[in-house]
């Protein structure tokens, strides 16, 4: 194999604000040189250099990892020209716990407890994508009720996740009462999750073969109560923020991303839709039963932080619409597949049958074997395309479990969004990308 | 066709022997998903061919270490299995189709061309793959560690990387850690 080092693509110097068209998609990135490529060692070396020209000075400023508006432990290296951000570099890894490596030593049944901790704001989606990938390797078909329960829980989770975004977005931009409202409403949804799965977060509720338990009695009333409670609250948010001149001034035209840039940078989810591209995996490649429910894909027109906000707010409304349809059409039947290879026996059978006890013991200690092969499955999480690449060698643990984290990939657009904006607007840009650091670092 | 069907049943992998090709590279199907297997030196050319054919987005790039993979590898005829395999997933928005590229990278020379010029979205995930597997993406503008500390020794997602043997990992940030002491403890 011949690879010559002179093929290396180098970013043009900062003085060149329009880089040479470099073939491929690089020419679609007009702000390519807003990406700071500098290690900490190099940055430290710069500090010792003598001043050459007083008028051509920029300052490297560190923001994070413990900063209230970085959503956890995102750290940014900003090159500041006065109060204007020129180049920036997101530095990540502070929450890295090697979850992909851990996934290689947990059985398929235990794997859900691992992946659910990645994107802790939308844990059910992680469980869903892992379960779908496992099921595709196993080649099992799950019963319709399990599919619809999964859909119900995921849409509720999307509402909870977007409410969390509403809260943190408001907090980042100074609308502190919005933070309290967002947390308050999200807590109501989490209370429903607790009733169903026993846990507020990290449920391990969606499992390969179906879901962990059937919906509790009276779930319909709980869901409808939430669905009746939320729309007036969303109206309140509209009054509080959407139409407010201060709010609009703070977000409109801030952190603009063009559709070409978004596509080149592999951005997905609400950030991609804010640029005007109607891409939603639920619509384009329907999984579960999304082809049987009616909903709209929301797109923005400017790709700015305001569009990101408005899309998420209205996606809550779309999710409410979907949930109402699910409540109406929830089929009866099993909540998990009756394939004894994958499913543990019912609790009552364990007390009376020795075989059932052995079966139960084996399935939870050894797990079930999954045929060899590899598969990639993607779902639309509240943050974008969440993918799972599973490689099985025929044993009870995955040989390789890779999660395509939308937060990690979307973070690439951050230097482009923040370039040539004020540092106060950088906060709005970070917030509109809505990264969950647990998923970025895994 | 009858032969291929029986083989599918035997291997359960849908490895079709006959000519299927796409963009000039051997094509297989894994659980109904299209996979092309370009040789390593044509990795970038294959991505460019996909770009020319209007594949919208590179969604995912990662690698697999097949060091102690027990099962058969089910690769098409001309492809020789190596230790590492780099995997890239593409999607097109007009039809919603997906395609996967898999290529073999030997342990002795873990290098492959970067797709950065064609698909700038590969930036972080190539860095992550470098960080986790030690596969060098030639042509990447800033191939540095992304999740692990800059002075980390070893590549965690390799199968021969010992798991959970270092209790505290951030003690002396300015010196590379002593490799022998870690191996002694494992």
Features:
heterodimer; A: 442 residues; Cytochrome-c3 Hydrogenase, chain B; 18 helices; B: 186 residues; alpha/beta; six-stranded mixed β-sheet; 8 strands
Q: How would you describe this protein?
A:
- The complex is a heterodimer of chains A (442) and B (186).
- Helix content of chain A is 46%, strand content 11%.
- Chain A has helices at 40-47, 99-103, 108-115, 123-138, 144-172, 176-197, 219-242, 245-251, 259-264, 270-274, 281-284, 305-329, 347-352, 354-365, 406-410, 414-418, 423-433, 437-441, and strands at residues 59-63, 75-81, 84-91, 206-207, 210-211, 373-381, 384-392, 400-404, 421-422.
- In chain A, the strands form three sheets. Chain A has a four-stranded antiparallel β-sheet.
- In chain A, a hairpin with a 7-residue loop joins strand 7 and strand 8.
- Mean pLDDT of chain A is 86; it is low at 1-8 and 10-21.
- Chain B has 186 residues and is α/β, with parallel strands linked by helices.
- Chain B has a domain at 14-138: Beta Polymerase, domain 2.
- Helix content of chain B is 20%, strand content 23%.
- Chain B contains four helices and eight strands, in the order αβββαββββαβα.
- In chain B, strands 1-2-3-6-5-4 form a six-stranded mixed β-sheet.
- Classes of the chains: A alpha+beta (442), B alpha/beta (186).
Write a short abstract of this structure.
The complex is a heterodimer of chains A (442) and B (186). Chain A has 442 residues and is of the alpha+beta class.
Q: In terms of topology, how is this protein built?
A:
The complex is a heterodimer of chains A (442) and B (186).
Chain A: H1 40-47, E1 59-63, E2 75-81, E3 84-91, H2 99-103, H3 108-115, H4 123-138, H5 144-172, H6 176-197, E4 206-207, E5 210-211, H7 219-242, H8 245-251, H9 259-264, H10 270-274, H11 281-284, H12 305-329, H13 347-352, H14 354-365, E6 373-381, E7 384-392, E8 400-404, H15 406-410, H16 414-418, E9 421-422, H17 423-433, H18 437-441
Antiparallel strand pairs in A: 1-2, 2-3, 3-9, 4-5, 6-7, 7-8
Chain B: H1 2-11, E1 21-22, E2 25-30, E3 33-36, H2 43-52, E4 57-65, E5 84-91, E6 98-105, E7 111-113, H3 123-133, E8 136-138, H4 179-185
Parallel strand pairs in B: 3-6, 7-8
Antiparallel strand pairs in B: 1-2, 2-3, 4-5, 5-6
């Amino acid at each position: 194999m011949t690879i010559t080092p002179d093929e290396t693509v180098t970013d043009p110097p900062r003085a060149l604000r329009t880089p040479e068209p470099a073939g491929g998609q690089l020419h679609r990135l007009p702000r390519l040189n807003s990406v700071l490529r500098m290690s900490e060692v190099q940055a430290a070396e710069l500090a010792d250099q003598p001043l050459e020209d007083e008028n051509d000075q920029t300052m490297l400023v560190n923001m994070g990892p413990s900063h209230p508006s970085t959503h956890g432990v995102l750290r940014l290296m900003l090159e500041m020209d006065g109060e204007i951000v020129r180049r920036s570099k997101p530095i990540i890894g502070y929450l890295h716990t090697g979850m992909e490596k851990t996934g290689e030593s947990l059985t398929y049944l235990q794997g859900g407890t691992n992946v659910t901790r990645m994107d802790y704001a939308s844990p059910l989606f992680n469980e869903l994508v892992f379960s779908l990938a496992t099921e595709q390797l196993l080649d099992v078909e799950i019963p319709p009720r399990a599919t619809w329960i999964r859909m119900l829980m995921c849409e509720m989770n999307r509402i909870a996740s977007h409410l969390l975004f509403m809260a943190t977005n408001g907090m980042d931009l100074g609308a502190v009462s919005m933070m309290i409202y967002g947390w308050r409403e999200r807590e109501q949804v989490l209370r429903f999750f607790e009733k169903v799965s026993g846990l507020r977060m990290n449920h391990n509720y969606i499992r390969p073969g179906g879901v962990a338990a059937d919906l509790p009695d009276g779930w319909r009333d709980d869901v409808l109560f939430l669905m009746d409670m939320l729309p007036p609250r969303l109206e309140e948010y509209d009054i509080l923020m959407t139409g407010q001149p201060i709010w609009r001034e703070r977000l409109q035209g801030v952190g603009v991303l063009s559709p070409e840039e978004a596509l080149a940078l592999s951005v997905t989810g609400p950030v991609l839709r804010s640029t005007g591209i109607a891409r939603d995996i639920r619509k384009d490649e329907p999984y579960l039963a999304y082809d049987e429910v009616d909903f709209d894909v929301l797109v923005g027109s400017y790709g700015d932080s305001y569009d990101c906000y408005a899309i998420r707010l209205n996606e809550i409304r779309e999710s409410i619409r979907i949930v109402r349809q699910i409540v109406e059409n929830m089929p009866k039947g099993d909540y998990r597949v009756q394939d004894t290879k994958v499913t543990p026996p019912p609790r009552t059978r364990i007390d009376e049958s020795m075989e059932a006890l052995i079966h139960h013991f084996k399935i939870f200690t050894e797990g079930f074997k999954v045929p060899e092969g590899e598969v990639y499955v993607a779902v639309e999480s509240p943050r974008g395309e969440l993918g799972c690449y599973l490689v099985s060698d025929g044993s009870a643990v995955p040989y390789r479990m890779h999660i395509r984290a939308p937060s990690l990939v979307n973070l690439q657009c951050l230097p482009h969004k923040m370039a040539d904006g004020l540092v106060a607007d950088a906060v709005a840009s970070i917030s509109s990308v809505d990264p969950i650091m647990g998923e970025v670092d895994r | 066709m009858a032969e291929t069907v029986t083989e599918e049943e035997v291997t359960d992998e849908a490895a079709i022997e006959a000519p299927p090709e796409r963009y000039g590279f051997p094509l297989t199907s894994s659980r109904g998903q299209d996979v092309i297997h370009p040789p390593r030196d044509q990795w970038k050319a294959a991505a460019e061919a996909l770009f020319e054919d209007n594949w919208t987005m590179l969604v995912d790039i990662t690698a697999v270490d097949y060091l102690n993979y027990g099962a058969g590898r089910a690769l098409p005829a001309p492809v020789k299995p190596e230790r590492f395999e780099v995997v890239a997933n593409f999607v097109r928005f007009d039809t919603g189709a997906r395609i996967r590229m898999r290529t073999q990278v030997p342990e002795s020379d873990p290098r492959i061309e970067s797709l950065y010029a064609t698909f700038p979205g590969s930036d972080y995930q190539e860095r992550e793959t470098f960080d986790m597997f030690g596969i060098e993406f030639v042509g990447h503008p800033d191939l540095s560690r992304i999740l692990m500390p800059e002075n980390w020794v070893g590549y965690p997602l390799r199968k021969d990387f010992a798991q959970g043997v270092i209790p505290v990992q951030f003690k002396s940030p300015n010196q590379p850690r002593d490799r022998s002491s870690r191996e002694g403890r494992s």
